[in-house]
Every structure is written in structure tokens, then in C-alpha cells.
Amino acid sequence: MQHEAHTEHGHRPDAHAHHDAHAHHQGEHAHHHAPSATWAMAAQATLHCLTGCAIGEVLGMVVGTALGWGNLPTTVLAIALAFIFGYSLTLRGVLRAGVGFRTAFRVALAADTLSIAVMELIDNGVIVVWPSAMDAMLDDPLFWISLAASLAIAFVVTAPVNKWMIGRGKGHAVVHQYHH
């Protein structure tokens, strides 16, 4: 761009300096809110999700089995508890940072919903297609083997989702601003 052309029309050559500074500031701001996502960050976020999901899954299976429920109501309970425990783990950390409950709850929803949903979809999908896994009882090694394998597969599938979200300032990137 020729600055002489701007001076001919009454513009000063430095007239855009403010815009350049503002654009630079916005670039810093965007970088601050959307950290570069590493696989280590994604793995940590996914492990956090996995912990809540595993607690909910196992508790749901234990309660459903103890009450003599069928596969569908037991699975629904396990999924509901996976979401509750997943959100609760995030909620606990955000509340410790001194944030009010309502804000902390919104942060937990924003941080964990997609991650838990993907984890539960994959986890339960593996269990459903695994021969005899849906009918395995708690004292059957098949129950524990299929659960462990399904959670491991869910971890592998969910980690890239979390990396993608963190890289865009979403998911657990939202939670990290409350840890400092």
C-alpha cells in the first residue's frame, strides 16, 4: 500500500497505527483464550472424564443389578450417573476456585458435556456389541473385562475430541482458567 495516496486524500501516514495496535491486542487476546492444545492436556482432560464416567458406570451397574433391573434401565441409570459424577468432579474443582455455584455449574456443563457424551456413546456401544457382555453379572470376569476394554476404547476416541475442543478454547480449556 502506498502511504502517499493516503496523504493526497487528507489521511496521515500513521492514521492506521491505532488499528494495527488494536489488531495486535486482539491477537494476544485470542491466543490467551484459545491455548495450543497438546496431547498431554487432552489426555488429562479425558482421564478426568473417564474417572467420572467409570464411577457412574460401575455404580449404575451395581445398583441396577442389585435391584434386579433389566439391561435398559440399568444402562440408563449408569449413563445418568456417569454424567452426574463427571460434572461433579469438575464442579468440585471450580467451586474450590471461589466461583459461585451457578457459574461453576455452567462451567462444568460447558467443559464436560461433549466429552462425557462421546465417552458414554463409545463405552456403551462397545458393551452392546460385545457378545454376552450385557448379560454378564458383577461376579463374572467378562463384566469387568468388557467394561475395562470399553472404557479404554472410549478414552482413545474421546482424547482427540478433547484436544480439538481445548484448541478452540472450549471444553476443559474453560476449566483451566479457574485453576490459576
Short description:
The chain has 180 residues and is mostly helical. It has 7 helices and no strands. The chain is globular and about 45 Å long.
Strand content: under 5%
Number of strands: 0
Label the structural class.
mainly alpha
Radius of gyration, in Å, reads 24 Å
Q: Tell me the overall shape.
A: globular
Order of helices and strands: HHHHHHH
- What's the overall average pLDDT, rounded? 82
Give the fraction of residues assigned to helices. over 70%
Instruction: Figure out the total of helices.
Output: 7
Question: Could you explain how this protein is built, in words?
Answer:
Helix 3 (39-66) packs antiparallel against helix 6. The radius of gyration is 24 Å and the shape is globular. Mean pLDDT is 82; it is low at 1-32. It is mostly helical and 180 residues long. The protein has seven helices and no strands. Helices cover 77% and strands 0% of the residues.
Notable traits:
disordered N terminus, 180 residues, single chain
Write the layout of secondary structure elements.
Blueprint: H1 3-8, H2 17-33, H3 39-66, H4 71-96, H5 101-129, H6 141-167, H7 172-176
Helix pairs in contact: 3-4, 3-5, 3-6, 4-5, 5-6
